[in-house]
């Protein structure tokens, strides 16, 4: 430290502070005071404010007694430095006013033209001493889900991959077989039956293979949904176990109907094919309707009202489409792949095909709504061997 009388006076005043402020004597404060002493003549008011801020920072931090320094103006400001004990609170507005003062431009004068600029280093040291680091953000609760419906495709947690894989695989089965059948010239591009796109080779092999896998994925998804509802109902008792079992059984029958449609082509065995299609569509529609009722019963603990309404709308549209689909199909007198608008059964074929595609994609969108419910579910397989010696 230099021998400047101002600096010596400040050190002497600081050594007379209360015992609880001993932390004020550290190398950083000493450097700050020494730096301020060199600028006393150019910014006496700034030095007074700096010392006062240093005392306020330590006193407010202790939370009990502090040491405040009041500085008087004029040439005798050094003798007007008075220590006054008592609780002093330091607000953000005081910090802001001091920072604005410390960075203000100093007007030039003949006597101070060679003096250095305002104490910017003092401002940096005060920021290090007085400014607190920002509080850490609150951590997410362990039970809070990370993915919501708006981001359900970005974070497939738990067993959410089951309905997602079912939706993507089934959509690919319909689209791929349709594209191949149209490119090969086996069906008309405008709204053929779904089964028509999988009747003639080579698309028939692709259609049968992919629909069989879709039926398996559908059964796995329905079984997982059945176990989820069963577990939830054990604590909330919102639905009868029989209702849940009936819904699951109808879903499995619909999956069996899908396998029949995939393995028995429309032109080869039309009766068996039509019977499988009837099982798949009717049982599937009833399954979605029963699941919508379960969703409403489980509100608001296990499902949101918005999601329940979406499911009910999809199931209602599917129910409204399956009835005219069956009615129009029963009026068609001949089974064929290529239709002309001039034929008498063309309108019945067109109406039935529109309803069939509506029901099929209704199933796809319905299973898509299962993804948020499956994200918080984990399936574990256990193996037990009995009679081991």
Question: Can I get a quick summary?
Answer:
The protein has about 400 residues and is mostly helical.
What does this structure look like?
This protein is mainly α. It has a domain at 160-373. It contains 12 helices and 2 strands. It has helices at residues 5-15, 27-38, 44-62, 92-102, 120-130, 161-184, 203-236, 241-263, 270-297, 305-330, 346-368, 371-374, and strands at 66-70, 82-86. The chain has a two-stranded antiparallel ribbon with strand order 1-2. Helix 6 (161-184) runs antiparallel to helix 7 (203-236), helix 8 (241-263) packs antiparallel against helix 9 and helix 9 (270-297) packs antiparallel against helix 10. 33% of the residues are buried.
**Number of beta-strand segments:** 2
Order of strands side by side in the largest beta sheet? 1-2
Low-confidence stretches: 19-43, 57-88, 108-152
Count every helix, treating DSSP H or I runs of 4 or more residues as helices: 12
Q: Give the SSE order as H and E letters.
A: HHHEEHHHHHHHHH
Shape: globular
The Cα radius of gyration reads 40 Å
The major beta sheet can be summarized as: 2 strands, antiparallel
Subcellular location: Endomembrane system
Family: Belongs to the DRAM/TMEM150 family.
Keywords: Membrane, Transmembrane, Transmembrane helix
Main location: membrane
């Amino acid at each position: 430290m230099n021998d400047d009388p101002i600096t010596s006076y400040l050190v002497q005043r600081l050594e007379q502070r209360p015992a609880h402020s001993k932390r004020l004597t550290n190398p950083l404060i000493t450097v700050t005071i020494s730096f301020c002493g060199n600028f006393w003549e150019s910014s006496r008011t700034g030095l007074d404010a700096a010392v006062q801020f240093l005392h306020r920072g330590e006193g407010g931090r202790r939370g009990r007694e502090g040491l405040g320094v009041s500085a008087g103006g004029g040439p005798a400001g050094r003798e007007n430095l008075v220590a006054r004990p008592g609780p002093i609170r330091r607000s953000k507005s005081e910090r802001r006013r001091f920072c604005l003062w410390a960075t203000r431009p100093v007007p030039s004068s003949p006597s101070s033209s060679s003096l250095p600029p305002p104490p910017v280093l003092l401002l940096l040291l005060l920021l290090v001493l007085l400014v607190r680091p920002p509080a850490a953000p609150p951590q997410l609760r362990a039970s809070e889900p990370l993915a919501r419906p708006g981001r359900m495709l970005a974070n497939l947690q738990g067993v959410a991959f089951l309905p997602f894989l079912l939706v993507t695989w089934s959509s690919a089965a319909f689209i791929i077989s349709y594209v191949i059948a149209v490119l090969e010239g086996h069906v008309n591009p405008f709204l053929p039956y779904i089964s028509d796109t999988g009747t003639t080779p080579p698309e028939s092999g692709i259609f049968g293979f992919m629909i069989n896998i879709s039926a398996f994925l559908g059964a796995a998804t329905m079984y997982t949904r059945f176990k989820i509802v069963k577990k939830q109902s054990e604590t909330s008792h919102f639905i009868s176990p029989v209702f849940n079992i009936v819904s699951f059984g109808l879903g499995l029958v619909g999956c069996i109907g899908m396998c029949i449609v995939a393995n028995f082509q429309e032109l080869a065995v039309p009766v068996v094919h039509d019977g499988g299609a009837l099982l798949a569509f009717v049982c599937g529609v009833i399954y979605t309707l029963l699941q919508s009722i379960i969703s409403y019963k489980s509100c608001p603990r296990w499902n949101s009202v918005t999601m329940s309404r979406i499911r009910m709308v999809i199931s209602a549209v599917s129910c409204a489409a399956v009835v005219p689909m069956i009615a129009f199909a029963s009026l068609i007198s001949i089974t064929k792949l290529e239709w002309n608008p001039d034929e008498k059964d063309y309108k019945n074929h067109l109406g039935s095909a529109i309803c069939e595609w509506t029901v099929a994609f209704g199933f796809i969108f319905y299973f898509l709504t299962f993804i948020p419910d499956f994200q918080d579910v984990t399936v574990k397989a256990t193996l037990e061997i009995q009679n081991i010696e």
